[in-house]
Amino acid sequence: MEIDIKKMHEKPPYGMIAILFFGAFVAILNNTLLNIALPSIMTEFSVKPSQVQWLTTGYMLVNGIMIPASAFFIQKFTNRKLFLTAMTLFTIGTALAIYAPSFNMLVTARMIQASGSALMMPLLMNVMLVAFPIEKRGAAMGMFGLVMFTAPAIGPTLSGWVVEHYSWRTLFVIVLPFGILTILWALFKLRNITPNRNVKLDVLSLILSSVGFGGLLYGFSSAGDKGWGSPLVYGTIGVGAFSLALFIVRQLLMKDPLLDFRIYKHPMFALASVISIVMSVAMFSGMILTPLYVQNVRGILPFEAGLLMLPGAIIMGLMSPITGRVFDKYGPKAISITGLVITTISTYYLSKLELTTGYYYLMALYTVRMFGMSMVMMPIMTNGLNQLPMRSNPHGTAMNNTLQQVSGAIGSALLLTIMTKRMESTGATLAQDAAASGALSSTTEQEIYLKSMLDGINYSFLISAFISVAALILALFVKRVRQPKYDDVKKQEQEETPMDSLKPVEE
Question: Are 91 and 185 in contact (CB under 8 A)?
Fold first, then answer.
């Protein structure tokens, strides 16, 4: 049964989208819950930091493999089947994690979770692009941002409290009922609205993308722990880069690619991708460097560290629907430039931290920075996706999600490396000065460690400020994608792909 897109645009399926929102929220919340629990898991299973990191690295690797393939899955299968499969995998992984008798079983459970959650974000974005006309997409994507940023806001604080009072397994116990509830809700209420085509899976493309994106993610994620000189780090990055180059060439030569790189012929989508990459690097820097300063330099407990970052994440979530409506009315340029100016200034002030910087001053500064970022990501991304024809939506959403994952991992690794190198350099200088003055003692060594770490964090924030300036310059070239008339869109879609091959299937 064919869905009337024009009629759906007049009355979007809000109830169905609420189901997808809830599933995405549960998946994102689960991902942010575990970070603070890693020390407790290390103690229970007697594993080293390099081993426990596999709980996050393994999750990222599966995301790196599944997200590029999501364009194929979204086109091949109905949104109902795909969501139910994804949510079932996620829930099975959650149940296995609760009862995991060994660390390897826990890692396996996390990877099963990731195989489900990786499909949810591209699927949700694609459903919204189909369900809403261009002039209403800003508000819709703003609500998506509310889900995407509120879950990470709740995660660390909730996790800190739970781990302080209960076992880390309780984190998965909390998530499991919500996973089951979402599946039952979807079974009765979810219907199909996305167009499907009879596409075939190119196995070689899937292998190349898995090795390419997976290699890059693993290599850059491991750099902070193993160092850039490790053969494992530069080896996996090299193999990943080579495989990715082969993957891109193959996609450009294929008539029906796994991930269509030809969407970059649309200038606003290409520009939006570059800005999103730059902003992902800047955003991840704050999410990593701020906890390092709060916990390692200031000695603040994890729960209080989570509370410090909570207002910023909540503000970012609450602002998303507002920025979405402003985007619908005025376009992306003014709001993104304003947001980037705020982000750049606040990031610069974060590079001026001291050993005695006030807790509430830091909270306010971090909140202002997140407020600025809330005005950039969704408007820029939505404007870029608006330029794509409907048949390219799955490729656009898959590309955006993949690039955010990869750029986040690369940005985190680079900024941590910059921090470490600066810390070593400053520490050596301070130790030399202390030795020359004959004042070197255990107390002095601790002071040197704190001062050198502070200098490394400040220097990394300064680099992050320059990265934000680069995004600001790029935003000057953003142009609003104007809304085409519905009949023109339909004509364009019929010319590019026969509508018969794009009919959603009603089960």
Answer: no
